[in-house]
Design brief:
Rossmann fold, pyruvate-formate lyase- activating enzyme, OB fold (Dihydrolipoamide Acetyltransferase, E2P), six-stranded parallel beta sheet, five-stranded mixed barrel, globular
């Protein structure tokens, strides 16, 4: 009765939360299994960014709940953003769910599962479902557990900040994640140092608005923000070869962060810079505090500081009131920024957000057309960029092998996935790879060193 399967929906922050829950459960004697059909406990870590994500998780939970008819001791839990957003309302639709845990209570999951299992093993009557979505001071400091001792991991996510105070009109995150809360800098650096000692070579710093890190807790020093100060400290850790971060906000890209790309070699030449819209009118309606011109200035500054830098973005098409002229302005800026990757979303109403009550909703047909147009631009950009890499030599961090054990995967500094033949001893190493062919998003190559 201790086999746990965790299914994660949504962003890298959710993945990190699931990893922490798994690590905490292992220390309590639970087994994390990869096969959902072989588990005694299933935990769904959910996303609420779009309605489709919630519906997918609800559908999965409803399907899985039927297992209780054959196995009354089976435990089903819903964690994360949807649990926070919907709370006890979930029980009206899914009364067989045992556990509903919000985004500030992940660290309580092992204790709650212990209690449920103990009651059932003692033959006590099954009580009401557990629902805990309350705020908890200091909860941002609880997501610090990683993998088991002895487990090899080349890269790791490190949570540095949670919550968001931006109040974008379309976004449910302030409701599901709460206000901005940052972890102490010395604790984060200590966590990164411990990871490096266990063989981690690449760190990704995570936060809802990662560039807002520490702005209420630390002072700017010589014009350097707390976030850049943190990057500098992680950069100084022996063994760490690469640093990434997500997800930032354009307003966080002041001169200190832009110049960091030129002076800190471990900071990967890859930036995820959410645009959302290229229309000043729509940006204002979205409550995004920058203009299209300011956004393009940031892009130009980053490319000047680090020529060849890779850029990705988020764009929403079909925001209420978006005209053809607004969309054309977005498309124009999208083309001008020449993104290497992008997440393009069709606007969906999220109850509880300011945009939910706006009129002039855009039809699904128009959203689909605009989405397709941007995807076509992105496809051409990606094909051109990957094709330009054929024949070049890229430094690749070897992450691991595929099931055959003969081909290995890794990533370039620009976050491109590479596939190649290698030896197990190279896992965790930075190797030179000559690119021999490319698809839209994947590179294929050969190790340059014959002895490799």
């Amino acid at each position: 009765m201790n086999r746990v399967y965790i299914k994660t929906y949504g962003c890298q922050m959710n993945e990190r939360d699931s990893d922490a829950v798994a690590a905490m459960l292992r220390t309590r004697g639970y087994r994390i299994v990869a096969d959902e059909n072989a588990c005694d406990i299933m935990l769904l870590n959910t996303c609420s960014v779009r309605d489709a994500a919630e519906q997918k998780a609800l559908g999965k939970a409803g399907f899985v709940a039927h297992r209780k008819k054959h196995n009354p001791d089976f435990i089903l839990g819903i964690l994360g953003c949807m649990a926070q957003n919907r709370g006890a309302e979930i029980l009206e639709r899914l009364p067989d769910v045992d556990l509903i845990i919000g985004t500030q209570k992940f660290h309580q999951v092992p204790g709650y599962l212990d209690n449920i299992r103990a009651a059932r093993e003692a033959g006590l009557p099954v009580g009401a479902s557990i629902v805990d979505i309350a705020e908890e001071a200091g909860s941002q400091n609880t997501i610090r557990e990683h993998f088991e001792t002895g487990e090899r991991q080349v890269s790791a996510f490190v949570s540095i900040q949670q919550g968001c105070n931006m109040d974008c009109a379309f976004c449910i995150v302030p409701k599901t994640r709460g206000d901005e809360r940052s972890r102490p800098m010395d604790e984060i650096v200590g966590e990164c140092r411990a990871l490096a000692e266990r063989g981690v070579r690449e760190i990704t710093l995570l936060g809802q608005i990662v560039t807002s890190y520490g702005r209420r807790d630390y002072t700017h020093t010589d014009g350097v923000s707390p976030f850049v100060q943190l990057i500098e400290q992680v950069h100084a850790i022996e063994g760490i070869a690469r640093i990434r971060f997500t997800s930032p906000h354009p307003r966080g890209f002041k001169d200190d962060l832009v110049s960091a790309y030129a002076r800190l070699p471990k900071l990967c030449p890859y930036v995820h810079l959410p645009l959302q819209s290229g229309s000043d009118r729509i940006l204002k309606a979205m409550n995004r505090p920058y203009s299209r011109d300011r956004y393009k200035q940031i892009v130009d500054a980053l490319r000047a500081a680090k020529p060849g830098i890779y850029l990705s973005t988020d764009v929403i098409v079909g925001f209420p009131g978006e005209t053809e002229e607004d969309f054309e302005q977005t498309k124009e800026l999208f083309v001008a920024c020449d993104y290497d990757m992008a997440y393009i979303f069709k606007y969906s109403i999220r109850s509880g957000t300011p945009a939910a009550g706006l009129g002039d909703q855009i039809s699904d047909e128009v959203k689909e057309r605009r989405n397709h147009e941007l995807l076509e631009v992105l496809k051409r950009n990606s094909e051109r960029r990957t094709a330009s890499l054929v024949g070049t030599v890229e430094e690749v961090l070897v992450e691991g092998s595929d099931q055959s054990g003969e081909r290995y995967t890794g990533r370039t500094p620009g976050n491109r996935v590479c596939v190649f033949e290698a030896a197990p001893r190279l896992v965790g190493q930075l190797v030179p790879l000559r690119i021999t062919r490319a698809s839209v998003s994947t590179l294929y190559g050969e190790l340059v060193l014959a002895e490799a």
